[in-house]
């Protein structure tokens, strides 16, 4: 409706300024026309003059990355090429209001990075970006205000962090609560893990945690005979089976653990900064000599993307396993230590 494609059945919306919108792959494109011809056609539909299109044509084609195919009919383009070209035209309209609806679902990582950079540039210039997406990291990195809709109704409006947290809490499919009594053990256990709960910073049982959020693992253990000193290990493994994080009571808890009967233990991880992805949790209970119980299957946690550094850009998952808390400092125009002492600068 804001793009004037559908008439409202009731009410009205006030729009002040020129609107540029990209709602679907190839919107406004004619499949028989070449990319060049469609740039002029799509630009005219969006309200650009022929002179304006001609002036920005090279920038549009370069942004879309389709220079080699600009004179090829659009019907030969992949869906990614079409959306790149369509976004490039809409982004170079210089609109006061830019409406983007889920277009980042198509295209490679490099194109998505360019799109986010362009939208950030538009928003920083004082213009409005209406960004509709299920990409939570992009919403948090780009938007200053978030709105959550359900069945066409406004249910929440506020800061992106609060709105996204509430949305993820409501949609979490895994409740983060595991009954471990029914897991088949290889031998009779004199002590075992009965229950595991994964809780977020609000204390809710969840199966999904946002990157950088506090997470607490709550364990209920039953020991038929005294175990002292008891040692509890919680290990995180990535999808490749590589151990990426270990929490161990023997090294991280100041007091000696003694177990008998039913005991509840909790381990709080302040700021779980694992890269986004699915992880599997392994539990082990021992006294340094005997392993009493080990649970290696069936427990998982998902770490969700988040603009942790506030840059609007995400570190690729394969670049690291942990996102440290980092502060960069850059000085310009200051000679290095070697230069101050007469050393030659080697650029190799």
Essential attributes:
elongated, single chain, Coagulation Factor XIII, Chain A, domain 1, nine-stranded mixed sheet, alpha+beta, 14 strands, 348 residues
Largest sheet: number of strands, sense, barrel closure? 9 strands, mixed
CATH homologous superfamily identity of the domain at 177-304: abc- transporter (atp binding component) like domain
Unreliable spans are none
State the total count of DSSP E strands: 14
Distance between the termini: 57 Å
Nearest-integer average pLDDT: 84
Shape: elongated
Question: What is the tally of helical segments?
Answer: 8
Report helical residue fraction.
10-25%
**Class by helix and strand content?**
alpha+beta
Reading off the top of the CATH hierarchy, the class of the domain at 177-304 is best stated as Mainly Beta
User: So, CATH architecture of the domain at 177-304?
Assistant: Distorted Sandwich
CATH topology title of the domain at 177-304: Coagulation Factor XIII, Chain A, domain 1
Our estimate of the beta-strand percent is 25-35%
- Rg result: 27 Å
């Amino acid at each position: 409706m804001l793009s004037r494609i559908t008439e409202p059945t009731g009410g009205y919306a006030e729009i002040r300024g020129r609107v540029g919108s990209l709602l679907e792959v190839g919107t406004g494109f004619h499949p028989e026309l070449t990319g060049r011809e469609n740039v002029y056609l799509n630009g005219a539909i969006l309200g650009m003059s022929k002179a304006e299109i001609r002036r920005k044509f090279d920038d549009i084609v370069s942004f879309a990355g389709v220079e080699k195919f600009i004179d090829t009919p659009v019907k030969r383009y992949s869906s990614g090429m079409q959306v790149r070209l369509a976004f490039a035209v809409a982004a170079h309209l210089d609109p006061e209001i830019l409406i983007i609806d889920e277009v980042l679902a198509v295209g490679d990582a490099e194109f998505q990075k360019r799109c986010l950079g362009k939208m950030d540039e538009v928003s920083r210039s004082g213009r409005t970006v209406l960004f509709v997406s299920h990409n939570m990291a992009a919403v948090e990195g780009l938007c200053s205000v978030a709105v959550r809709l359900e069945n066409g109704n406004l249910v929440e409006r506020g800061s992106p962090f609060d709105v996204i947290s509430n949305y993820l809490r409501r949609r979490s499919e895994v409740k983060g609560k595991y009954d471990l009594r029914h897991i088949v053990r290889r031998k009779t256990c004199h002590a075992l893990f009965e229950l595991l709960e994964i809780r977020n910073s609000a204390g809710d049982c969840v199966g999904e945690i946002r990157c950088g959020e506090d997470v607490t693992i709550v364990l209920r253990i039953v020991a038929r005979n005294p175990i002292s000193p008891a040692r509890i290990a919680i290990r995180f493994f990535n999808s490749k089976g590589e151990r990426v994080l270990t929490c161990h009571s023997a090294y991280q808890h100041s007091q000696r653990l003694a177990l008998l009967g039913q005991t509840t233990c909790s381990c709080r991880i302040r700021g779980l900064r694992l890269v986004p992805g699915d992880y599997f949790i392994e539990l082990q209970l021992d006294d340094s000599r005997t392993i009493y119980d080990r649970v290696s299957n069936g427990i998982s946690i998902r770490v969700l993307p988040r603009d942790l550094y506030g840059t609007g850009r995400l570190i690729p998952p394969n670049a690291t396993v942990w996102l440290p808390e980092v502060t960069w400092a850059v000085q310009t125009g200051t000679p290095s230590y070697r230069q101050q002492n007469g050393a030659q600068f080697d650029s190799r």
